[in-house]
Specification:
Largest sheet: 24 strands, antiparallel, barrel
CATH superfamily of one domain: Outer membrane usher protein FimD, plug domain
Oligomer: single chain
Distance between the termini: 41 Å
CATH topology of one domain: Immunoglobulin-like
Structural class: mainly beta
Strand content: over 45%
Number of helices: 4
CATH architecture of one domain: Sandwich
CATH class of one domain: Mainly Beta
Low-confidence stretches: 1-39
Number of strands: 59
Radius of gyration: 33 Å
């Protein structure tokens, strides 16, 4: 029923009378009451409330929009679309309004907003210079939401530093919290040969580490266990590398201490112990970051792929039969050659090298990029060898199109200098050219001098929907030596006095969108002065089309060749995939090589978001049938893949791969799967509530018994969001803050807390010690300051978060007045609860 009344200032206002004395929420009641605005305050006509004691009403907290009683609160900052971790925000009464309340944005908090320097200089302050005067920066607004523990801050985009959807300015980067981690990647295989002999192999690698402040302490490990009939058991555990690093954000650089491989765009890599400081491309916006190397190949069976550099395992995984493409090496690889080994389940092994490459060395106009390192060369056993060295390189963006770069490496009797120029050709791409001169003095051989010339090119052809990711040519004179060759010749009696001659490298792709056809080419050809050339190339084509009732049929053709150390392996791989059923795929795969081939028919299906399997059966040119199975599971504590194969009567094999880690902090600990050992991760907290489904970019994980989960698929310096899967929440759990965000520095352990309210719900009546009831509108909060109810007529409330022994505070007149304690065990809730509220 609507009525019209006059307010004290003469305005006519319509009111809606409440007809029922009990409501689920006071917010619903207030939504049925029309209110009158006087300046910034709200005037309520309590006469329309059908309650027994109109004098016992406290609606003060609703009289001003966004009002919070003065005090300190732990709130997450939402700046436009970005989130800043929980901060202590104090609400103060302004000098001209003793009954008001404003958020005090301190200088430390304002720094987190990412304001431009000019905007920050125009800011004015109140409360003795401790709080930002919002009137001095028109357009900035602040709105608190205590129910979600969020402070919404809206800032005009013109005030902010450069931001993107997935990138925040450095002022918002989070170094994370102190903690420890241990990550692993384990692979086990068991093979039975035709003779009946069985061999077992267990290998692993990973990283252990500690974080404190911006520092990351790391130790890489690798292990090997081999058992074969008639031979002695081989086992080994090695700590392959000890190091520490941190981000120097003001310099957009990374400081590294300890054992490392030289990261250089000009000189070949070698292992050393020392210190380095270099511009970190990962701290630049995504569109300015560099090229990450990748490894491609074809597995003939279910196989283990190991990628190493100078004896240190960088990456190890198992792959199913067919083409594979490994692209997530950017966090672990420095420049130089990578050793690739593919171990098939039939016992055969193939090895080759991949030369990493970088896009032309271009720098934005006016900017300088640099890398400096010093130390002593060392070997895999942590022993130093050779002279002390120092190296440095710098690139300067001269103009919009030109960059010049130069560098030097000095180590006793070995010296090397390089100079180059890069040019942005605009529509024609980008190109660079450099020359490196080395001088090495060797015992009994005198001084050897030589030059190495290099040209690099990259281009995205938008009009032709194709891209040359990298194309390069390098020619080295016979007497040119890099640092590794010098150390080998000088200290290890090596006879390689500079064997590299020419290197051709190209990586490109082309899309034919009208045909849904894509083509990918990776090619490397390397010649030497004193031995046979090596070749690796992989050409693949894939197409999607509809055929009758079958949609998105896929066909792919891959041709490959690997020629290394007089061993040659080449062939063709053909694959046809047809969608089958709701989520399955029926496939045909054929491999055709020089000496053997095979044809298989298989079926692949996803059981759910975390589980999938593949079954194949077929025959090979060597005779006999074969069968194999491959199963993957992404669990909360580890990622697992299992495979098995049987080749007629000639043998069988079984493999198991586990990848995961453990992270421990002062807030708790959790086992988890991991995508990059030793990498960046986010620990999320659901306040002790277990089995809460949490979704990152890599799938769903559930919190452990202590309410903790670790999401490891976090990209350093990217803005990341993690959310609660609301559709899969248990019935007695609510999430009033279901998304957490942040931008973490490299290797950080982030920490975020969801707003989770667990417990049952029921009607309750709250009584004070003298038998009276709290005022109408009084608020109830649990010990985490999450609102669980609002007092209605006669002390009645719809109470959430009911758990045995839980304590909740009842507040009115801007302070906590009393506390209720829920019974343990809980009685039958269908009849409601009568709860005494005792003075705190």
């Amino acid at each position: 029923m609507l009525t019209t009344k006059k307010t004290s200032n003469g305005k006519s206002v319509e009111y809606r009378r409440i007809l029922h004395p009990l409501t689920i929420s006071l917010h619903l009641m207030l939504g049925m009451i029309h209110i009158a605005y006087a300046d910034n305050a709200v005037e309520f006509n309590t006469d329309v409330l059908d309650v027994k004691e109109r004098a016992n009403i406290d609606l003060s907290q609703f009289s001003q929009a966004g009002y919070l009683m003065p005090g300190k609160y732990q709130l997450v900052l939402h700046v436009n679309k970005s989130e800043i971790p929980e901060q202590t925000v104090e609400f103060l009464a302004p000098e001209n309004d003793p009954k008001g309340s404003l958020a005090c944005l301190t200088p430390d908090i304002v720094k987190l907003l990412g304001l431009k320097e000019k905007t920050a200089n125009n800011a004015q302050w109140w409360h003795d210079g401790q709080c930002l005067d919002l009137n001095s920066l028109p357009g900035i607004t602040v709105r608190p939401d205590l129910g979600s523990s969020i402070l919404y801050v809206s800032v005009p985009q013109a005030y902010l530093e450069y931001t993107a959807d997935n990138w925040d300015p450095p002022s918002r980067w989070d170094n994370g919290i102190a903690g420890m981690l241990f990550d692993y990647n384990m692979n086990a295989t068991s093979n039975r040969q035709e003779t009946g002999d069985r061999s077992n192999n267990l290998s692993g690698n990973g990283t252990a580490g500690m974080n404190f402040g911006p520092w990351r302490l790391r130790a890489d490990w690798q292990s090997q266990y081999e058992q074969q009939k008639g031979q002695s058991t081989q086992q080994r555990w090695d700590w392959s590398r000890f190091y520490a690093y941190r981000a120097i954000i003001s310099l957009k650089a990374q400081l590294m201490l300890g054992e490392n491989s030289l990261d250089s765009s000009l000189f070949d890599s070698f292992r050393y112990s020392g210190v380095s400081l270099s511009t970190d491309d990962k701290q630049l916006p995504p569109n300015l970051r560099g090229y990450a190397p990748e490894v491609t190949g074809v597995a003939k069976t279910n196989a283990k792929v190991t990628i190493s550099q100078q004896g240190r395992v960088l990456y190890e995984t198992t792959v199913a039969a067919g083409p594979f493409r490994i692209q997530d090496l950017n966090s672990a690889v420095s420049s130089g050659s990578l050793d690739v080994k593919v171990e098939e389940q039939d016992g055969s092994t193939r090895t080759w090298q991949v030369d990493t490459a970088s896009i032309p060395y271009l720098t934005r106009p006016g900017l300088v990029r640099y890398k400096v390192s010093t130390g002593k060369p060392s070997n895999y056993d942590h022993h130093s060898q050779g002279p002390d060295f120092a190296t440095g390189e710098v690139s300067w963006g001269v103009s919009n199109g030109w960059s010049i770069y130069s560098g030097g490496l000095f180590a006793g009797d070995y010296n090397s200098l390089a100079i180059g120029v890069g040019r942005d050709l605009l529509a024609l791409g980008a190109i660079s050219f450099d020359v490196t001169r080395s001088q090495a003095k060797l015992p009994n051989e005198g001084t050897k001098k030589g030059n190495s010339y290099r040209v690099s090119y990259s281009k995205r052809f938008e009009d032709y929907d194709s891209q040359v990711t990298f194309a390069g040519y390098r020619f080295s004179e016979r007497n040119y030596m890099n640092m590794s060759q010098y150390l080998d010749a000088r200290y290890n009696n090596g006879n390689d006095s500079g064997g590299d001659k020419e290197l051709y490298t190209i990586t490109m792709n082309k899309q034919f969108r009208p045909l849904n056809l894509s083509v990918f080419l990776n090619y490397s050809h390397k010649t030497y002065w004193d031995r046979a050339a090596s070749d690796t190339w992989n050409l693949s084509m894939s197409d999607y089309f509809d055929f009758g009732h079958f949609k998105n049929v896929s066909v792919s053709l891959s041709a490959y060749r690997t020629q290394y150390d007089d061993a040659k392996d080449d062939g063709i791989y053909l694959s046809l995939s047809v969608p089958w059923g709701e989520s399955g795929t029926l496939s045909y795969n054929g491999q055709f090589g020089r000496s053997n081939g095979s044809q298989t028919v298989g079926y692949y299906d996803r059981i759910d978001d975390n589980n999938s399997y593949r079954i194949d059966t077929g025959s090979s040119s060597t005779g006999g049938g074969s069968g194999s199975a491959y199963f993957t599971h992404d669990g909360d504590m580890t990622s697992m893949s299992a495979n098995a194969s049987l080749t007629g009567t000639r043998g069988s094999s079984f493999g198991l791969s586990l990848q995961g880690g453990g992270t421990a902090t002062a807030h708790g600990a959790a086992l988890h799967r991991t995508s990059s050992v030793g990498g960046t991760r986010m620990m999320v907290d659901t306040d002790g509530v277990s089995e809460v489904p949490v979704r990152g970019s890599g799938g769903i994980e559930r919190t452990n018994a202590f309410g903790k989960a670790v999401v490891s698929d976090i990209n350093s310096y990217y803005h990341s969001a993690i959310s609660v899967d609301l559709d899969a929440l248990p019935e007695d759990v609510d999430a009033n803050r279901s998304v957490v965000e942040g931008t973490l520095t490299e290797g950080a352990i982030g920490y975020r807390k969801f707003g989770i309210l667990a417990g049952k719900k029921a009607m309750a009546v709250i009584k004070l010690a003298d038998g009276s009831v709290p005022p109408f509108g009084a608020e109830i909060h649990n010990q985490n300051r999450i609102q669980t109810g609002i007092i209605g007529d006669g002390g009645s409330t719809w109470l959430a978060g009911i758990r045995p022994g839980e304590q909740m505070d009842v507040s009115w007149n801007d302070e906590v007045q009393c506390r209720i304690t829920l019974p343990s065990p809980l009685p039958e809730l269908g009849k409601g609860l009568l709860l005494p509220c005792n003075p705190k």
